[in-house]
Design goal:
It contains 9 helices and 16 strands. The chain has helices at 21-30, 51-55, 76-89, 104-111, 137-140, 143-150, 165-178, 259-268, 317-325, and strands at residues 4-5, 8-15, 38-44, 60-66, 93-97, 120-122, 126-129, 154-157, 182-185, 211-212, 234-241, 244-251, 273-280, 283-290, 293-298, 306-312.
């Protein structure tokens, strides 16, 4: 018997680069009712996906769409990705994490139109901000940042443990200006799960329709994560949009990196964002650097040896690649 999919509660969790979206989703997954299955669609600006590995856990279906804005670079893939998730996982809730440098208003529009208006029940869009950057013209004048504020049903200040009183005053002023349905101040992305069921401001009346939950494996290769071909030890992929450029590397799983050299390299780099999942001589590690703030955390599951770096301008990726290769053991 074919199971019908209809009115899946769906939330968009957005925010600018490095604000802590993935960490916030992890915190929400920890609060997931044990009897429910949730699905997460992750769209990264870089071509080499990493967040999917971070979010993997029991009772959660993950689909990555690397390569930029869901409504632009991913094109048809976002429709295929969502339909595949719904058909194969039959989730009780769908969380969507767009890239921090994409067009979230277009994503919301896409999700509110056919065929998604027949299957998704759009709930609150949650926008995270880092109050330390509210007075920075580079953020205030950025089109992606402004769109993220425009779609916010819930506006959340993250990393408040690192903020000054002036930062928090600036956030209070932002909330007063924007007047979202709800707002909050959190550390480590600890969102209130109750925010997920607040209505979306542009929510339309549900239409009585349905989708047949038929898996579509024939479409899967179009949105599959990048893999190495037989005999390859490394692959590099680049992306560029406006002032931002990204480069990602996928290394063979048997390769091992010098832990201390990688820490030193990432700490010395001037980048908007660095994410990596690597096998090192000290074990398997996730590396995360935002504006020079470098963090490394161990993980039990084997990594896929991936590195993704986002910078402004026209970086010398060849030089950076040479530096990465010099960290191999």
């Amino acid at each position: 018997m074919v199971k019908l999919i209809q009115h899946i509660p769906t939330n968009v969790i957005t925010g600018f680069l490095g604000v802590g979206k993935t960490t916030a989703i992890l915190q929400l997954l920890k609060q997931k009712p044990s009897e429910q299955t949730w699905a997460v669609l992750v769209n990264e600006f870089g071509q080499i996906g990493i967040d999917g590995q971070i979010l993997e856990q029991e009772g959660v279906a993950i689909k990555e769409l690397p390569g930029g804005c869901m409504c632009c670079a991913a094109g048809v893939s976002v429709k295929v990705g969502i339909n595949t998730l719904l058909a194969n996982a039959h989730p009780d809730r769908l969380l969507i994490e767009p890239t921090g440098i994409g067009h979230p208003e277009q994503i919301i529009k896409q999700l509110s139109e056919s065929p998604f208006d027949q299957t998704l029940d759009m709930r609150a869009c949650i926008t995270l901000v880092d109050p330390r950057h509210l007075d920075n013209p580079r953020y205030r004048e950025n089109e992606y940042y402004r769109e993220q504020l425009n779609i916010a049903d819930v506006l959340v200040a993250n990393k408040v443990d690192q903020c000054t009183q002036e930062d928090m005053d600036a956030f209070a002023q932002l909330v007063g200006t924007r007047q979202p349905r709800a707002s909050g101040q959190v550390t480590h992305g600890e969102l209130d799960i109750a925010w997920l069921d607040l209505p979306h401001a542009r929510q339309q009346e549900n239409r009585p329709s349905w989708l047949q939950a038929t898996p579509t494996p024939e479409l899967e290769p179009d949105i599959e994560s990048i893999r190495l071909e037989a005999g390859e030890t490394m692959r590099r992929l680049e992306n560029h949009s406006g002032e931002f450029a990204s480069c990602g590397w996928l290394f063979a799983e048997q390769l091992c990196f010098d832990h201390q050299k990688i820490i030193s390299l990432f700490s010395a780099m001037t980048a908007e964002r660095i994410k990596a999942s690597l096998r090192t001589d000290q074990g398997n590690y996730l590396f995360n650097s935002i504006d020079g703030d470098m963090q490394a955390s161990s993980r039990e599951t084997p990594p896929q040896n991936r590195v993704e770096i986002i910078m402004q301008g026209e970086p010398d990726w060849d030089k950076i690649e040479d530096a990465l290769l010099s960290c191999l053991i």
